[in-house]
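does this look right to u?? iron/sulfur cluster version
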Amino acid sequence: MNLLDIEHLRVDLRSRERRGAPRTVIHDVSLTIAPGEAVGVVGESGSGKSMTVKAVMRLLPRRATVGGTLEFRGTSIPAMPGRDLARFRSQLVSMIYQDPRAHINPLRTIGDFLIEGVVASGQMNRAEALEAACTLLRDVGVNDPQRRLSQYPHQLSGGLLQRMMIVMALLPSPELVLADEPTTALDVTVQSEVMAILTEQIRERSVGLLFITHDLDLAAAVTDSLAVMHAGTVVERGPSADIYAAPRHPYTAALLASRPSPTSVARPVSIPGRPVSAFEAGEGCAFASRCPYAIGQCRTERPEPRTAGTRTVACHRSDELEAVLAEGVRA
Ligand code: SF4
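got this back:
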């Protein structure tokens, strides 16, 4: 049984004033995570990545309407009663956020911050939690863990603080970790270090990972499968290595062409136009105004996701463009 099943997720959001028609912020997101599997969700800002995570954690505002299926181990997340939801959020699933400083109380010690969740949920008493935190701190390469536990957030660097977030996420022994751009706020050199620690710990414990990022290279390197999002829709899904080697959707191919290559001096090619939000997408394909392969049908008819081999692709022309897009990556 899968850990997480998301099928045709749709989220509509009313304005704060509750005036006008609701806006669609997620059109169609489908993905699954098996136990121990690492899945990357990649896309530009505004593509709906973080909204998807909020829907999974049932953290959307009250003015949101959720459609489709959201299940954890076969149990509907939207239908979970309060007690089950509390256990789901505190023990079964953990989150690692983008900016650790924005999610840590500057007035409390690191130790109090780390153990608060497991003590409050009754998983461990204070002494057990502190001991487990020390062990995990050593596992993530933090020297002198006792001293770190008595320090305050302002005494730690960004990289060290993000390691604390990893420890906090792993302390309840969750089955799934949701990491929302966990290295974006860090220096490039620290980014790779933190990412290596996170993936190592996740794999050692066979914990599932949902990794949200705008960095396709990084996602392909650390995940088993990828879901590429554009304008609130998963436009391509499949094994990370396959997508990275030969994208089947023009948007995925454009993302790959827009990043600098370590093996080529060719200039990166930016994607023309601006990213479109889900609520701005019209009748047809949301990528049509930026896609060099758009035809008349693309502007009038929304492409439905179709399975092709190991992939699911939402593009009218994915079959005929297969060779062209693969060639573009090799160029
Ligand atoms: Fe481009 Fe048309 Fe495919 Fe959309 S459906 S990605 S516009 S070819």
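The chain is about 35% helix and 20% strand. idk if thats expected tbh
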